[in-house]
Description:
This protein is α+β, with helices and mostly antiparallel strands. The chain folds into 3 domains: about 5-280, Immunoglobulin-like (Sandwich); about 315-470 and about 555-560, Neutral Protease, domain 2 (Orthogonal Bundle); about 475-545, Pdz3 Domain, CATH 2.30.42. About 25% of the residues lie in helices and about 25% in strands. The protein has helices at about 130, 225-240, 285-295, 315-330, 335-350, 360-365, 375-395, 400-415, 420-430, 435-445, 500, 515-520, and strands spanning about 5-10, 20-30, 35-40, 45, 50, 60, 70-75, 80-85, 95-100, 120, 125-130, 135, 145-150, 160-165, 165-170, 170-175, 185-190, 190-195, 215, 250-255, 265, 270-275, 465-475, 510-515, 525-530, 540-545, 545-560. The strands form 7 sheets. The protein has a 6-stranded mixed beta sheet, with no helix packed on it. A 5-stranded antiparallel beta sheet has the order 10-11-17-14-15. A 5-stranded mixed beta sheet has the order 18-19-20-22-21. Helix 5 (about 335-350) crosses helix 7. The longest helix is centred in the last third of the chain and has 19 residues, at about 375-395. It is globular. The relative contact order is 0.08. It binds zinc ion.
Amino acid sequence: MGVFNVKLQPVFDTEGAAQVIDITMVFNTAGKKKDDILFDHTLMRAVVPTMQYTTESIQLIDSHNLAIGLYTVDTKRNTHREFRIEKDILAGEELTVKFQATPRHVTESTRCGPQVAIEKDNGGLSGAGLAFLLIPATADGDVLHDIVIEWDLSSASPTTRAVCTFGEGQRVSVREKPSVLSECFFAVGPLKSYPPVVAADTEPAAPTSHSAFGMYWLSDPPFDTDDLGQQLNKLIPQMARFFGDDEQLFRVFIRRNEYKCASGRGLHRGFVFAWTPLSPKDEDMVQDFLMHEIVHNWPRLGFTTGGPEDLIDGWFNEGIAEYYSLILPYLFGTMTEDQFIERFNWRISGYYTNTDRTVKNKDVQDRFWLPGRVHRIPYQRGFMYFVQLAYKLHISNKRSLDELIREMIKLRAADKPHGINIWLSLVERELGSIARDDYNDMSEAKPIILHSDVAKVWILNSNWRLEPVKQEEFCLGFPEENLSAEPRVIAGLGWKSRAAEAGLRDGDRITLRYGFLTEADVWPKSFTMNVERGDEKTPHEITWWPRSWHKVESYQFIRSA
Ligand SMILES: [Zn+2]
């Protein structure tokens, strides 16, 4: 088994802030023919650009110190760059590649996307492997290696700490496929952590270097990290056990964003999420969001087509994360029955009151990043699909949804096919032809109507009945495009809208201090904006319920007498 060595040397300025990372990777190749791909480099992840390495920015040499020529080919949608070699390389040849990662420049108005790019944060740097490492291609990348990650902190201040998904400290080793590095997260600088470093030691990294759970941040977030760390440290092992996973390793990274973005992203055995001083999130929304992100570590559908950017299967991954982020806290007793039903109702409302609910799954991808509610469809529709399925399996005394999901997780862990057809055949074995009918109906945007006693799947002797009600559709009150236009002003405000009623006016200048739409989308939540008007000195803070006056068919759980 080969060794794959990654050496990371952060370079600091005179104030001790990390500026760039010099990277050296050394490994013995399985052998390559001329024109084979040696490295894969992700260029974009959603709207986030990565390092954009070229042949000029990397240096590749063999064991005799001789340079090996490379050329690049960008893939069709310009999301990946292949580094191909100009001559044959014998199997076993030791290759050394050197390059430098620099943080991306961001401002308040940088577009929100997944937290992957190398970015500066309070004197430190953090980012996901896919954004700044060259990932070895097939034969080198997908074979188990003894991966050694070394941080050279010789020029760092004594309080500098370094961590990656596999652990903390100057030398971390793990037996894994090098390709997994793309889904690992790395951070260096004045890091704080949960569990905290216990003693002031000359080796600041020592106390947590081998612990299974760790949560890290460079800037202090506006929420209680001790409290959150404790909760996650308890919850995550419970969830791992639930999904049949014996491994303990799990790392959470928190980033502060200058720009308006508080997204999260699942990683290899962990996740990263961001907060922004521009708009704080409600505490209960942070919890719900984190549960969702954590679930992503286990159930994931294999990709039907092209790769991770394909959103065609998004309903499965987002739907199951929405499902378990609701069910598990109730099952584990951290949520009461009333809290459970309240949140269940919010999710059901979201599904029925989405103004774009008739968009079919096949059209979701093209419209995902456009203004409107299409990007909520995979979450809401997928959730309803799994709720309906859990019920059908339950009342026909078949294997439970949990069992089927665990089977999918096992297939994925064993690197066996776990795409949509495998999933449908598992369901078909239990329910027959209904499996494909329900899937097709869901894909075609046919409304999912749940049975009135669906709550009994999770609540013994449930007295909750799902009843039809009329509810207001989501409605901001003005075109969502206003938020991203240049200049950002309110134009086309619905004069009868709740926004207008609350005091918003056409011509108001939109500051970046407004709520997150994904949060405003949650049934009872209001939306707050800070706008500037005319030459008035103080901005107006305006809050309203972002809902139309018009009501549509929906359902809610009501306690029966
Ligand atoms: Zn998700």
